[in-house]
Amino acid sequence: MKLYFDSLSKLESFTLNIDCYVDKVECPICSKRGQLVSHGYLYRWVGGILRVVGKRILCAARRGRNGCGSTQSLYIKTDLPRFHYTVVHVCHFFMCLVFLKKSVAESYQLATNCYDSRNAYRWVSKAKNKFSQYRHFLERQSLESTDFTNVASSQLRVLMATIRGLFDKTPCFSPENYHTITQTPFI
User: Rounded CA gap, 178 and 77, in Å?
Assistant: First the structure.
């Protein structure tokens, strides 16, 4: 099932017509078909404004349906699940880190305008955890890490070369496109 959508209108179209997709859409938990119903919106404060960032669907176990009762979140591609910042902030962070060769703390400050850089190291850690997925997405192309000789950590050096490869070798790459293509969060 598709988890990331290009816009709110496409997401709403999918969830409002979910009964039309009875033979195509199944619950990811119980694998039953025809039990999913639209369950409401997901909201997030972005720039002081409460915005819709996704919708929730429910595998219904009421009113003649025999689903498992689990819920699934569907997102607009500009949103990252369980993140305070949007994809734009994360993209800006990695572009400052990789292309401008700023430190992790400086990149985080430029991307988020926040001076406390604790989350920056969490973002790097999450990117390290997704390293194999990034390499798989690049189809194991050889990447040069020689541009990052000033980085002390060898793991961070290889990660930065991989992220640079994502931006350089993939036409029109952005974390939003990564969401749409792989249906997994960028970080």
Answer: 9
The strand order across the sheet containing 71-76 reads 4-5, 71-76, 49-59, 36-46
* Interior/surface letters 156-168, b for 16+ CB within 10 angstroms, e for the rest: bbbbbbbbbbbee
For residue 53, give the nearest of 84, 98, 97 by alpha carbon. Answer: 84
Cβ contacts of 153 within 8 Å, gap of 6 or more: none
Residues in contact with 115: Cβ distance below 8 Å, sequence separation at least 6, in sequence order? 109
Closest Cα to residue 26, out of 3, 1, 2?
1
124 vs 20: CA distance, rounded Å = 41
User: pTM to 2 decimals?
Assistant: 0.77
Higher pLDDT pick, 157 / 171: 157
Single-letter residue type at 84: H
Closest CA to 107 of 122, 94, 118, 121: 94
Here the tokens at position 113 are 């305008």
Tokens of 182: 């792989």
Task: Give the span between the Cα atoms of 127 and 92, in whole angstroms.
Answer: 14
- The identity of residue 144, as a single letter, is E
Residue 46 bridge partners (DSSP): 49
* 29: Cβ contacts below 8 Å, ≥ 6 apart: 59, 68, 70
What pLDDT was estimated at residue 52? 92
